[in-house]
Design brief:
With about 90 residues, this protein is mainly alpha-helical. Helix content is about 55%, strand content about 10%. A two-stranded parallel ribbon has the order 1-2. The radius of gyration is 13 Å and the shape is elongated.
Length: about 90
């Protein structure tokens, strides 16, 4: 469930990607707490190339604060090699 309403597919896809990455981070934490080592990054597959490119390019500029928050969260996880976004 998304809390905000987006008028563009780019915005809704980015928010969905952020929610997916939040779920991945929680799942990886839960696995580590059960004693299962998680060493490799998780792959996030998407169908919107502009979202995937913006999630992997740190120099991207975003206008809305909500999208900026989603951008920085996904970039943080990608920089820590928690997940990798791919098409």
């Amino acid at each position: 469930k998304q809390n905000g309403v987006e008028t563009s597919s780019f915005g809704s896809e980015f928010v969905a990607m952020k929610q997916c990455c939040e779920y991945i981070r929680g799942l990886r934490y839960k696995l580590r707490m059960m004693g299962i080592p998680v060493m490799d990054p998780t792959f996030v597959y998407g169908d919107n190339k502009s979202v995937l490119c913006n999630a992997s390019i740190p120099e991207s500029n975003l206008k809305k604060k909500m999208l900026s928050t989603a951008f920085h969260f996904t970039r943080e996880g990608a920089a820590k090699d928690e997940w990798r976004s791919t098409y």
